[in-house]
């Protein structure tokens, strides 16, 4: 869910209020200086009670299905809650100059009180794909090598794993809006995709 910073708030107080940690808030919001948050700033916080209403003032789309999945889409931010994990993807901004690197962050956080196990077929943990009007134009894993061995990773309650990657579209990419889709490739959650939209323009 999203929280609007009020006068006198600190990251520590916000973390205590929502039953999380300062480091989790830093990771989810890509905060560079935890001592410099501003009144009115929007902070993403793990929502431990996904049955309650999310603040509709910030939501552009809202859906809850039988898998207890919560999904909210905005321009350069998307998240879902599945199998006890809050999975967030965002870019550092929503508009880029031609040739400018696009920084993509994907975070998964265990928001339950129990360990969550994730099974992987190889050393690959995530996948990112960029689309131009439905046509795939970039795949993060292309031309990358991964260790070919199965592994089970355990996320303890409150633990987050953060993946930061860069798409370098190049100056030859036309101006327009592009969709970046990302997901965690663990067997238990690989069907759940996140989408963010970025604009490339002069």
Automatic annotation (TrEMBL):
Protein name: LysM domain-containing protein
UniProt domain LysM: residue ranges: 1-45
Gene3D superfamilies, A to Z: Intracellular proteinase inhibitor BsuPI (2.60.40.2360), LysM domain (3.10.350.10)
PANTHER family in the record: LYSM DOMAIN-CONTAINING GPI-ANCHORED PROTEIN 2, MEMBRANE-BOUND LYTIC MUREIN TRANSGLYCOSYLASE D
SUPFAM superfamilies recorded: LysM domain
Organism from which the protein derives: Orenia metallireducens
Molecular function per GO: lytic endotransglycosylase activity
SMART domains according to UniProt: LysM
């Amino acid at each position: 869910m999203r929280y609007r910073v009020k006068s006198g708030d600190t990251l520590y107080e916000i973390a205590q209020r929502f039953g999380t940690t300062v480091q989790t808030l830093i990771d989810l919001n890509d905060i560079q200086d935890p001592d410099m948050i501003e009144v009115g700033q929007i902070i993403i916080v793990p929502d431990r009670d996904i049955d309650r209403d999310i603040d509709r003032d910030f939501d552009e789309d809202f859906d809850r299905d039988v898998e207890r999945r919560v999904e909210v889409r905005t321009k350069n931010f998307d998240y879902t809650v599945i199998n006890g994990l809050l999975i967030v993807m965002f870019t550092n901004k929503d508009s880029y100059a031609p040739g400018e690197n696009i920084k993509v962050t994907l975070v998964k956080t265990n928001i339950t009180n129990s360990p969550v196990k994730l099974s992987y077929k190889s050393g690959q943990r995530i996948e990112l794909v960029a689309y131009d009007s439905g046509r795939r134009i970039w795949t993060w894993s292309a031309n990358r090598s991964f260790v070919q061995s199965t592994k089970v990773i355990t996320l303890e309650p409150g633990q987050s794993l953060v993946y930061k990657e860069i798409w370098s579209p190049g100056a030859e990419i036309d101006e327009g809006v592009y969709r970046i889709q990302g997901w965690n490739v663990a067997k238990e959650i690989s069907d759940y995709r996140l989408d963010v939209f970025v604009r490339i323009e002069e």
